């Protein structure tokens, strides 16, 4: 018969340090390290954290009450969440000592430790385990120590120890140390005489270093990156992370480029309280050796957002660069090379249940263009909402007062006041919906003309608008290809009437023509902004059909629509534009479908039925049989775009291929290739191989892509700039020793000029 003894004593719980990066990678399920589990008697009740009594059970025990006790055979000790199993244990209550040996296993909610023996001083809360091995729960970290000591303040000292995040049978790397001191309160570990072995070969020695014992941030160097390119030469980046305070941190990344010089990047992040946060980025390259006049180049970026109170919100975003080609030449942490607009905004908003108020400042800097958009300095907005106000009617009021400024002294400035009351009568149900809407668009301009502008000094524009939108939902059960489906048929219509007024006397401050894709056919505006409100007398007809399988998952969605014009619009964006004379808009169609099993297609087209002309089209064909398995073919056509390099109008006709595929359990391949059919040349090629195991990862990548080159104050001639860039990059991460985190296949898909976009957005 097993015997159980209950003692009113306390045992200390050892603390084991955790890996720096606690993120689980995609192979976590294959890399899980399972520690041994101590023996727990059947029927033992759940642990109570407040109950510090010790319960001991064994096959055999003997002792003297109040003095000592000896336990043998399947000894199981528990105290709150702590459990110990051993072949033999002894308690000396007079000396307040506890000892255990023989298949000793210690376990709590954080760590599991096995050891040859354990000696504990109960009065001083000191303990020593010899021949210890430890495993951290929920982490890949495990290791061993010749001696493991627990101090009175529950700290941990490891003598002649090692740790790794690799599986025990495949320890690709091991960090050995003569002594490790773990501070459980500060959650830091100090390591003396550290030696890193990779494949059993010592490659790195550090006489002293510190690591976090949890996922707490720690000051120190991160893993360097190595790359090369035809424009920058060989690049070596060595990021340094500074944990300034719990609310502040800074990452400084000096990068040396053999062709340009030293490029320094700094990112400072902060939290002002639980609801406000922001970051500041500073980048600087002094005396760029690649350019003829060796200019200094820089980038400044600041963003901040958060809630000041329960009602007030604030947001800022500001970016500035030294020249137009900054993002084309340098790898910034803020923008990509394909981003040529720097949007600077500052907003302060007040929100309540039925109304909100906002103040907005906005300045857009367009890289590579001579003309600049207007600045909003400032804009005041007020919105009021009264849903179901009277007999089911909804009332809304939108108003704004905007002051437009411009950097150029030769451009006009203006103030604009716009008031837009709206009354809506909605009817909605399972069978469909019908929404009737009446608006009054009242706009006043006060324009300050420069030189001989033919603009009106004051403008008073009042336009009525009527919109009726309806949709009917039909559905039926059907069968295709021996499968049962639920098919919907969703016809919809929209009648739109907008009054006419000549608006040639108004400047263009924030208006541009909008795209006429399928959803755009049902807009009530032809132009963005308020400077041009096109008159309309038109009917939009659209049809959507969907297929849902037996699990109610959407397998197909097809939409087709067109606008029928009863009267041609007499309002153009610019006065010298020709009037559009057409009875219909483009025919817009969109398709998202699962063709068969793992094959998917997504396509969209805008077709001019009158002139039989393709206005815009794109199609992608995906094969996705499993995680990290993808083959994608794509094509896109966009006519009459402005080429910023030559200022000519060109047609974009590009075909592309993208793939990611596992070559083995740990080796992945990612590649993409995009070809310009008009210019008969490749515009981007990317090839990457990544090997990722449980404890380390390495990536080797090659890229070749076209470069965007602008004229700027540093280099007005673009003929001497490279048209294409070729380069290699190498990334290496040892998981558990810091760095920027495990490398992932998904972020390889986003490298290069063309990001991967999952084309299918079928609703589940």
Structural topology:
Layout (H helix, E strand, L loop, with lengths): L2 E5 L20 H4 L22 E5 L1 E5 L3 E12 L2 E11 L4 E11 L3 E11 L4 E11 L5 E9 L5 E9 L8 E11 L4 E11 L2 E12 L7 E2 L3 E5 L3 E5 L2 E6 L2 E10 L3 E13 L2 E10 L11 E11 L4 E10 L4 H4 L11 E11 L3 E12 L8 E16 L2 E13 L7 E17 L2 E17 L9 E15 L1 E7 L2 E16 L37 E13 L5 E12 L21 E10 L2 E10 L4 E14 L2 E14 L6 E14 L4 E10 L4 E12 L3 E11 L17 E11 L10 H4 L16
Assess the beta-strand content as a share of residues. Answer: over 45%
Q: Can you give the mean pLDDT?
A: 84
Distance between the termini: 58 Å
Q: What is the chains' assembly state?
A: single chain
Which descriptor suits the 3D outline? elongated
Total beta-strand segments: 42
Structural class, by secondary structure, is mainly beta
Helix content: under 10%
Biggest sheet features: 26 strands, antiparallel, barrel
Low-confidence stretches: 1-28, 759-764
Radius of gyration from CA coordinates: 34 Å
Total helices: the number is 3
